[in-house]
Every structure is written in C-alpha cells, then in structure tokens.
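Task card 7
Instruction: Convert sequence to structure tokens.
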Amino acid sequence: MAAVEERREEDVPVENIGPVAKVQLTWRDRLRSLCTWKTLKMVLLGQSLSVLICGTSVTSTLLEAKYKVSTPTAQSFLNYILLALVFSIPLVRRGGDDNIKVILKRRWWKYAIVALIDVEANYLVVKAYQYTTLTSIQLLDCVTIPVVLVLSWIFLHSRFKWVHYGGIAVCLLGVGSLVGADLLSGRDHVGGDDKLLGDMLCLLGAALYGVSNVAEEYVVRHFTRVEFLGMLGLFGSVICGLQLAILERHELATIQWSWQVGLLFVGFAVCLFALYTIFPTVIKLSSAVVVNLSILTADLYTLFIGLFLFHYVYHGLYFLAFILIVAGVVVYSTKPTTEAPPRNYEAMPGDNTNRENDDPASRQPLTVSQNLEQDRLEDDQERRHRDANRTLAQDPSGSPVDVVV
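Output:
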C-alpha cells in the first residue's frame, strides 16, 4: 500500500501578514449593489402591505361616507376571528413546545398584552379620523418610526448606521411632500372639528403600533409566525369582542344592513387578514423599521383610487413623495443592521468553549441576516431532535433506534 505523503503549508506568523488593501468602489459598483433581488423583493413585499392597507382604508371610507357606518372595533373583530381559526388550530395539533397548551402555560399573559396593544392601536387611529384632519394623521402617524427605532435598540439589540438614518430622512422628506400636496390640493380639511383630541388619539395609536411591531419582530425571530398570529387572533378576538359589546353595540343596532354593507365589511376583513398574515414574513426578511418605512406609501395608493371613487385632486408632489419613500427604503436596505453582543453568554448543549476570559467588547456582532440564519439552523436542529425522540418512542420492538442528528 503506497504511502500518501501529506503536504502541509507552513503557518505564517501574524506579524508577517501585511494589511489588506482597501478596495475603492466606483459609483457603478454601488449602484449594482442596490439593484439586487433581495432589495427588489423587500420593496415589492413592502408595497404589497401598502396596497392592503389601502384596501382597508378605502372600504372603511366607503362605509362611513356612503352608508354612515363607523364601527372600527366591529370591522377588526372579524379579522381576529379569522386569525384565531386559521393559525390557532395548527397549534392544537402540534406536539412538544409548539403545542398551544404549552404556549399558553408559559407566556399567555405576554400575548394578552400584545393583543390588547394591537386592538387599541387599530381602534385609536381609525377613531382619530373623526376628530382631526388627514394632514395631522399623516404627520403624527410617523411617530411609529422613532418608537420602533428606540425599542429595537433596547429589546432587539439592533445597532443602526448613518446610512439607516439617511434612509429614514429620505422617507420623511417623502412624507413632507405628501403633506404639502394635500395642503395644495385641499385635502387637509378632511376630518372632524376636535383637532386636539384627534391628534392625541393618533399619537397614542401610532406609539402603540410601534410597540406591537417590535413585539412581533421579537416573536418571529425567537419563535414562529404561526404562534404569534394564532395567539394574537385568540386573545384579540376576546378583547375585541368585549370592547365591541361595551362601545359599539348601539352603532351595530342602527346599521341598515344590505349586501353592499356586508361586502364592504368582508372586504375590510379580508384585506386586514392578508395584511396580518404577510406582515410577519416581511418583518423576518427585513425588520420592523423597514416595514414601517415601506407602508408610508399606503396613503398614496389610497389617493390614486380616490381619484376615481372620491374625486380627489391630483398634484405632482404625490409622485415625488412616492419616489422619495421608495428611495429611502432602498437606501436603508443597502446595509444590514448589526446585533449588539449579549452581556452574558449562556452555554448551549455541546458548547465546550471557555467563556470565562471572553471579553464581550472584543466579539464581532452578528448581522441581522446572520442572526436569522443561526435561528433557522437551531430550529432545524431542535426539530430533528424531536423527530428522533418521536421515532424512539414509536419503535414497536422497544429496542433503541440509531438516529443520526
């Protein structure tokens, strides 16, 4: 048997390694880095959310303007029922830690708080339209963005770069163009006569939206989308049903029901259900900040449909606003946010690395995409362990079964 001689390169001392030359990127290289499938997919998914929000806005406006129906809680109630039916039932069938009994036992009160925040955010923002102007709502709705930034920094340990703040600034310029177009076209007078109350309702609702979005991002990173939507639908149905019975029972009794009113109710619920279903997927692909920047264009889609349904007046600044908001999302997405390293490590099973003398400041933080990939690998490993245990438990002979994990 011929001996195989193994050649091994000599290790080069670290002090003999020269610095790596920095590559100078041209403007074409930078432009090419923007035009990627990942960025395009993020923009398209974000705009699909805006279209769905536009659908809820148009159906709600038709209900109020044409049929004098203003029942925001009743309209949202059907959405939470659909979420509970579609996403809670799979949790009942699952086993192990994904079973609904285990989830409710461990963290039911957390989902109850998130559902309460989500229900009230929807109610307050829709209610604000009755008291204040459209322009005020468009401006105050942007409060969601700084709330998401601060909460992402604290609870998700996200760290932002100057390019992210630049993208947010470009999006806010787009909002300014949108508001300016409303002022010039006369849409700023749409609304009620108690401006202070309406502004406070919108401000509080926007802040609650920020809390709900960050909680949603945390859950889809650490658990599953099905768990979040199932629990939100379950607790949201109960909270929304109680609020409906207390606040809107008289309004429901006075509604002149017809097939048109019923169709608008169903249309609102379908758009809102689709929005809630897609929202966690887009958040997991990007972040809560990107999603909230993307849906700033929802008012523009509502305007374009309103040109035919409500005879709105078009202004050239609307197109500029759309370009600025989409450009801001693209600029924000050029660089991923980074994850701050945790202060204390918890050793995972099989981790023999010595952490005693490890300096957290010397560790390189993970990017969001790397963190999501790590979460996916850990989920796959945990699922394989569960399948292995299930195979051992179901072996009819009672003898151990060798399962490679």
